[in-house]
Design brief:
The complex is a heterodimer of chains A (about 300) and B (about 180). Chain A is of the alpha/beta class and about 300 residues long. Helix content of chain A is about 40%, strand content about 15%. Chain B has a single domain, classed as Rossmann fold (3-Layer(aba) Sandwich), CATH 3.40.50. Chain B starts with a strand and ends with a strand. Classes of the chains: A alpha/beta (about 300), B alpha/beta (about 180). At the A-B interface, helix 1 and helix 12 of A face loops of B.
Chain lengths: ~300, ~180
Amino acid sequence: MKLSTKNLLGIKDLTPEDIQLILSTASQFKDVLQRPVKKVPSLRDVTIVNLFYENSTRTRISFELAEKRLSADTVNFTVSGSSAAKGETLLDTVNNILSMKVDMVVMRHSASGAPHFLAKHIPAAIVNAGDGINEHPTQALLDAFSMTEKFGSLKGLKVAIIGDIMHSRVALSNIYLLTKMGADITVAGPPTLIPKYIAEALNVKVEYNVKKALQWCDVANVLRIQLERQNQPLFSSLREYNQAYGISRQLLESLGKDIVIMHPGPINRGVELDSDVADGPFSIILNQVENGVAVRMAVLYLLANREN
Amino acid sequence: MKTVFLSKIQYVKTILTEQQIALIVKRLAQQILENHLELKDTVIIGLQPRGVFVSDRLVKELRSLLTSNHVQYGKLDITFYRDDVRKELHVANKTDIPFSIENKNVILIDDVLYTGRTTRAALDALLDFGRPAKVELCVLIDRRFSREFPIQSDYTGKSIDTFISQKVKVYWKERDGREVVELI
């Protein structure tokens, strides 16, 4: 058994069997993380560079922990304090790093397609840790892992993805993954933040009324409003967004059923999620973060095998 | 012994029949009890995935021999401890050790002892769960003279001499429908 791909650029390229393999391997790694010694020697001889051209807390720490728990050697690269600030191109930077014998590259970049570009030019395995508004595959995998843990299977699960669909790579990766695994998806949010024709292109339902979407779903994956990617105002104010599309305790209690709340982080408290929802009993946000390490261990472990 | 003619170059030789396997499991259980009376401070750990077929039978036998019925039995997966991650990818199985191995005598159970690499990885994996007082190895088949590490079994079902080009296949009733050990 192995993955059908040599890099993890996006969920788009994975088969349902790949996804299943990653999730089942992740659950074994989750067991490892509960042991007194939370570390295995699998990637003892593998060197991984974490290339972060964009800010990140969770993903970066999660990848770094995953690498360390697998006994890989890691090198961190951040754009501030590097020669990229002096104008070195992406390909030059990576080729220079690779000449120091690096086996894998974990990369986040604000340009969509940056890891795909690299994959064409370098031999090392590339793991996409988020590229612009395209994909964030490991986030979708850990979301799927958390949902499977809660519900047993993804097949027929009703998932609402709520918020800034337009600028969210988490949304796109989630839609690809959930579709492949047979879940039902509704995207919800203000019309200005939902791409036109998304229903036709990706075969999802579209709902502009958040309450209706919540009433329909088993799980709500609430996304962050990505102000840094919006170069024109797409809604009038954060307060108004919160009034119309934010999720409050009151709204959840008015549904008359229990749903699970997820969020990829970082949360804009009081905008897309109120604090008493984010920290409340319906939320599995911290489980998602915990599962992130196990899922990333699985991805790195499965991609390290490249000699055949 | 029975030799079956398969093709011009491939011979299948039966090493152990179902009956012999059952007898060997009985004997191994007796030998273990001889050294570990009542299995006080002794735990049994089967190696995933194939050693578990042996350890399941052995533990059943031990439970029937002991009056107290107290056998601590765990399963250990060593996939993440292998030294050949880059060459071959193995699918991980469940590790389930629901007790502490600290200061216990651990008996590792596997089906075939060949190069010793699996056992080496198992020792590494085991030590991550604590510091056992003693570790012993029990195998159904020992392929002598093909070891790549200084590892020997303490309880051996049957020792056989093989070429590296040969393969030892172990079939189990619950998985393959028949119970037999063959040399190909």
